[in-house]
Design a protein that fits this description.
This protein has about 450 residues and is an alpha+beta fold. It is built from 18 helices and 6 strands.
Amino acid sequence: MTNFSLKAYVKTSSNAAPLAVFRVFFGLLMLISIIRFAANGWINKLYIQPDFFFSYYGFEWVRPLGDFTYILFVICGLSALFVSLGYQYRFSIITFFLSFTYIELMDKTTYLNHYYFISILSFLLIFLPAHAYFSIDALKNEHLRSQKVPAWTIDSVKLLIMMVYFYAGLAKLNSDWLIEAMPLQIWLPAKYSLPLLGDFLQQQWTHYAFSWAGAIYDLTIPFLLIMKRTRILAFVLVVIFHALTRVLFPIGMFPYIMIVNALIFFDAGLHNKILSFISRLLKISKQKFDNAKVYSFPSAWVKKASMGVITLFFVFQLLFPFRYLLYPGELFWNEEGFRFSWRVMLIEKAGYANFKVVNPDNGNRFYVDNTQFLTRFQEKQMSTQADFILEYAHYLEDHYTKQGLRNPKIYVESFVALNGRRSRPYINPDTDLTKIKPSLQHKTWILPFDDEIKGL
């Protein structure tokens, strides 16, 4: 019975308008994001000025391209525009995925959950016929032009959005967030200058209300969006939630992206109205795209391959956030398995890392001025994350070796304060970091966390 239902579902088709609207807005928002990034001078500040860049394990070869980095952003922006227009869609979305992901991987310092979300979403879109309707490709190619697409192509986008929310909600089920209202107790009072909200954000009950509301929102909004009876209410909540986060926290375009993404949960009627409005605005005929045709993949093997890749994609996305269970110790402290797991804004860390370089031949030692090698932003990120500290230590080893110091030993004296706790030692100060090779193994040289954070 289950197999029969699955087979029937795979053959089900839906109006293509939601996928077309999603493509149009996705590309447009990505173009705006790239322009905004360049206009704020962040390309130069983050990828041209620094002398050193922190890399992801396995992607050490990904580096900024000097002045050619500007060209990379131009390519990314143009491909986003072409995705929105549906022009040479498959090539454009692949180009966007590759260029955006390369930008994301250039420096681990700039890691954000929503950058990862854009990368995996653009990867998913490679295998979906988002250009089959209301696109330049469909206008030029009658065989491609289809008013209906397989239902699973739209539902796969919905599923990814639902997973992001739900996993973010699961991550909030911990004692720091729910019992201590951390780190909101640190962040919200700092917004005292906000009109109307400033005084309100000083109250402790507000911090708890925001913490619990955030967890409940993330855990329930996927189901409220998927159900027709609660969809409008859910969308109102999406707008309110992300408008608040945009006011309270500097998270760029992400709130707008999630608000627009939520539209895909609505029925095709709304999306056809949106496309009709765009048609009138641009003085083009929407009727040219209307037919009774259901999109058909170029061949049976392409369809099977696409469905296979998407299936593996979701299996990976379901399991990967739980890799932290493979590591002992406190996740928020050692952050092993923390990234790429939708743990959004759960920790506030502050600390410092003082590196000591020792000459093994005579025992002479000196301390490193980190500002000679790192930007303030890089130093802030490095001082509280063990993999950053190790990579920087190896960079210092190479630097001083080139300066004539043979086989230097490098130690770090580091202290970190987590979610309002008192600062405590972070890295074993007796560990020569030059002897440790970067790997995915548990970092035994991180000192134990003498507290307990209960929960997932």
